[in-house]
Amino acid sequence: MSTVMPRSALRHRPIASTQTPIPEWVIATPRRSNRHRPRPAQTAMAQAVQTHHRSPVAILAAGMLLMVMFIWIVQVLWPWMGTELDAIRYGYPRTTQVSHAVGHGGISRFLATNQDGQIYVLEISGAGAAAHLLVGPHVLGAGADLAPVTLDFVGRTDRPDLLIEVQGVATRFHNTGSTYVLV
User: Do residues 84 and 122 share a domain?
Assistant: First the structure.
């Protein structure tokens, strides 16, 4: 068995002694370690913020406060958005126009208007006969002038009755064959 050390274990030695001696190397900065990283210098304020931990109760309270504010904003915006959408759809004063064959000579046009809470329906028959004005219900309460009017035709197909709906209240006008009368 050989007692010679493997070459990887031998240190490098100069071959000739005439060369200048190799100086010892001095390491100016130590090798960086992964376990011990130096922390950057921090101010007192940064240290105070870093050590402050938020309580789960404080986070929950802040979330609840934000939710209450969100609900309040939705409750304020929802009616306003409804009023604005009605203004876009029906205009001001609230007006609805419908065309329908009701047996009064061709296709009649109906124009329903909410004038300060009083509902008026103007029927213009397609035969060129005189127009008829129907006085509908009077709406009471705050914002009565903002309530949209809808018209619907119910009953027989050749002479349907006119149904005026405003704020959930329906008023029916009976078709006599030449005009409408309040039922």
Answer: no
